[in-house]
Amino acid sequence: MGRVYLGVNMEFVRHDDKSFEWGVEKAAELGYEYVEPMVHWGRELLSEAGYFHSVSMLDDPLRIRRACERAGIKLSGLSAHCPLCKPEVSTEYLKQAIRFAAECGAPVINTDEGPKPLWTTVEEDHMLMRYVLREAATVAEGRGILIGLEPHQQYSKTPAGLDRIFELVDSPVIGINFDTGNSYLSGEDPIVWLEHVKDRLVHLHAKDISVDQSASERGKVTGTPVGCACGDGVIDWAQVIAVCKSCPRDIVFSVECGTVDQAKRSIEHLRALL
Q1: The three-state (H, E, C) secondary structure of 29-55, written as one string
Q2: What is the pLDDT of residues 227-243, one digit of tens each?
Q3: Which SS3 state, helix, strand or coil, does residue 163 take?
Q4: pLDDT tens digit sequence for 194-229
Q5: Whole-angstrom Cα distance, residue 164 to residue 80?
Q6: Domains in the chain, please, with CATH?
Q7: Which residues in the chain come in under a pLDDT of 50?
Q8: CB 180 within 8 A of CB 220
Q9: 230 to each of 82, 217, 257, how far by Cα in Å?
């Protein structure tokens, strides 16, 4: 039976115009046990100036490890989203993210198929994704890093579509990073879908969806950047926890919300249920 731990995706500090290190300290202050940093390629002005939480993979991976050690917090994974349908972007990006994760101490990297090229067919897209995932899995297998595929875009918006991507490459390091909010907005029942993937689950994005957003967007979109505070929306967290406790591995809930106050309310709600 799996144990459930509480973490937070670093998106919760993006509106505070603060650095990665500030966000890690704030997560620990709120009582989270884990954080999920976002990484990027190259250099980006706001992050370099300390006004945004994303970390460049040109930085020393030990920057992340040291920040977490100082705050007494652990890593649940890295947010390494890139378009799997575009191998010119995602092949080397994912391979670098895997090496970066191995050195900083993150056990999982999370990604999705991303927006597709305008000119490719469905079959071509899946062949391109197979190439990217096979290349990435080869790097991940030797390092013991898991790849979490997230329901987020045009193909992964249904259980069958996510299954097809998962089945493209037979590798023990490929699993599912389930997103409760994205699955709900796509029109599916997130509890039924979570039950379907629980044996392959390696990470979970704990995203709640407000009643207003549900009314305006459900069935019309395949995902959303962040949700509302867990407990303020439509997701049944008691059921989510119950399913995850029956998983074969321990699972970290990485809360995806947009503000520090929402992160505070989220951990209070989830702790009460745990």
Answers
A1: HHCCCEEECEEECCCCHHHHCCCCCCE
A2: 999 999 999 999 999 99
A3: helix
A4: 999 999 999 999 999 999 999 999 999 999 989 999
A5: 21
A6: 4-273 (3.20.20.150)
A7: none
A8: no
A9: 26, 18, 8
